[in-house]
Amino acid sequence: MSKSLQAIRGMNDILPEQTPVWRYFEGTVSRLLDNYGYKQIRMPIVEFTELFKRSIGEVTDIVEKEMYTFDDRNGDSLTLRPEGTAACVRAVLEHGITGGGQVQKLWYIGPMFRHERPQKGRYRQFHQIGLEVFNLEGPDIDAELIIMTWRLWGELGIRDAVKLELNSLGTSESRGRYREALVEYLSAHHDKLDEDSQRRLKTNPLRVLDTKNADTQAVLVEAPKMADYLDDESRAHFEGLKARLDAVGIPYVLNPKLVRGLDYYSKTVFEWVTDKLGAQGTVCAGGRYDGLVEQMGGKPTPGVGFAMGIERLVLMLETLEQIPQELSRQVDVYLCAFGEEAELAGLALAERVRDQLPNLRLQVNAGAGSFKSQFKKADKSGALYALILGDDEMAQQVVGFKPLRGQGEQQSIAWDALAAHLATCVVQG
Ligand code: HAM
Questions:
Q1: Torsion over CA: 240, 246, 251, 255 (sign)
Q2: N or C: where does the chain have the smaller number of CB atoms within 10 Å of the terminal CB?
Q3: How far is the CA of 63 from the centre of ligand 1 (A)?
């Protein structure tokens, strides 16, 4: 195929054999979110570039080097969203739905775009399910977000393979004081820092904390600790969160170097990480951003949220073999009809059955074909049963009912009794 007809590097097709797992995952999460009282919001995929610069931060990897930014025909600078929080804040402000302290518990799903170096678990178009809560300032809601994800990992059968890392970044004042102390310390060790950290020291010093460079990590051992600079309010908030996680029995690891790659966080930050996926081990991450709404032009509004990467979680389900058996079968019953008259009768019969059994996955053969070829297709479809309509069945107004997997003889079922019979044989989702 010529190059122009290939998908863009890092942007994947999700093929029919993969979509059942995606739908299972998305269905499980959306059911859980419904049950906890969260409501879905849908935002555009493209926003003004300014939105992301102002919210994520000018000096972050995302804004500096990863955004898909272009001028549209009006000359406006637009960007394919690299994440969902900024657009969600823009939407709640634009529609006034967080005004007057109204609590909003929102979730969204969809593609995000970052021009990162593609590798396993890291793509340029990837998908997130994200969640944002507005106007709740206590640690109880931070805890709810984490408890909910903990339940999700349990339902998906991957709880043992993920670990929760927690940190508190404090209020912007306490972070400011910490930043000063850190800059002073790191400046004294400037020559021992890697080049990237030297640059970050000037632009975004907290990001030096999550360097991968061993020499810089060695310098950081003696660096001032964020926990020592937390103000009383942030400290109490963090204690409140930990007490709630302890009460529910959710294990966590405190990671004082967890700073996150987006600038809007304050107080709680957390990541769910796994060692089952190689280098791209963060499957879900988020935190509190109490200053963001105001920074974007709204009234002071506390906010907290997280997003999970669907590709990474689907990979986890595959790696840990936690894909439910029943996903492998997409068809319950396959109807084969031979001859024009039988085909017409079959169509009408299929619709009558569907009226009575709306959840039955009934596939009607299309494209006619010989007895042998239709049976082959019935078998390949994965169906449990074939229904057969030929001259004999037409004459007697019955349908041949043939089990395709396992034991059992073919039997004849009267058309009127077919739906009732199928209801007893097929467990419907
Ligand atoms: P984030 O940490 O940038 O946070 O992304 C959240 C999750 O999206 C990651 O933990 C990962 O699972 C997935 N992800 C990120 N980049 C990629 C990629 N290139 N390929 C595949 N998966 C990826 C945010 O986006 C924040 N908006 C989360 C948040 C919401 N914080 C508060 N509210």
A1: positive
A2: N
A3: 14
Architecture per CATH, domain 330-428, reads as 3-Layer(aba) Sandwich (3.40)
Over the stretch 152-205, which tens digit does the pLDDT of each residue have? 999 999 999 999 999 999 998 898 899 999 999 999 999 999 999 999 899 889
* 127 Cα–ligand 1 center, Å: 9
129 Cα: distance to centroid of ligand 1 (angstroms): 9
Averaged pLDDT for residues 242-268: 94
**Tokens of residue 176, six digits:** 């400011």
Query: In which band, very low, low, confident or very high, does the pLDDT at 133 lie, cut at 50, 70 and 90?
Result: very high
Other CB atoms within 10 Å distance of the CB of residue 423 = 14
pLDDT in tens, 361-418: 999 999 989 989 999 999 999 999 999 999 999 999 999 999 999 778 999 999 999 9
Identify which of 62, 112, 145 to mutate to test ligand 1's pocket (most ligand atoms within 8 A of the CB): 112
**What is the C-alpha to C-alpha distance for residues 150 and 142, in angstroms, rounded to an integer?**
13
Q: Is 201 in the pocket of ligand 1 (CB under 6 A)?
A: no
Ranges in the chain annotated CATH 3.40.50.800:
330-428
Nearest CA to ligand 1 atom 29: 306
Task: Name the residue among 416, 426, 296 with its Cα closest to residue 348.
Answer: 416
Q: Which helix (H) or strand (E) holds 91?
A: helix 85-94
